[in-house]
Amino acid sequence: MSTANAEEAHHSSPFTRDDFAAVPYLRHDQFISLIHWTMVDGEWRYTTIHGHYLHRDERFWYLRVQGASTRLGRTEWAIFS
Asked: Organism's domain of life (predicted)?
């Protein structure tokens, strides 16, 4: 497939950019962990959350955590293994 055709195929795809690059291994209902870093009193602290992956879009992670659906901002939460 030529580069032009590859780009055309990519633009018509329903997937987001990182569906094939950053975290391509995630499957629906897969158990994952996300991490969020914050600065508290001059020290870095982290929070992790564990849940079942539902999907993601450009802005959010969608998870099921303890039976409840939740969404977390992708600019604040990163995949953690």
From this structure: Bacteria
Residue 5 CB neighbours (<10 A): 9
Q: CA 33 to CA 54: how far, in whole Å?
A: 13
Q: How many domains does the chain contain in total?
A: 1
* Each residue's pLDDT tens digit, 10-65: 444 444 444 444 565 899 999 999 999 999 999 999 999 999 999 999 999 999 99
Q: In the block, which residue shows the tokens 């992956």?
A: 53
What is the rounded CA–CA span in Å between residue 61 and residue 77?
Answer: 8
The angle formed by the CA atoms of residues 37, 43 and 48, to the nearest 5 degrees, is 25
Q: Please, is 74 exposed, middle or buried when counting C-beta atoms within 10 Å of its C-beta (0-12, 13-18, 19+)? A: middle
Q: How many CA atoms lie within 13 A of 35 on its CB side?
A: 7
Considering the domain boundaries, does residue 59 fall inside one? yes
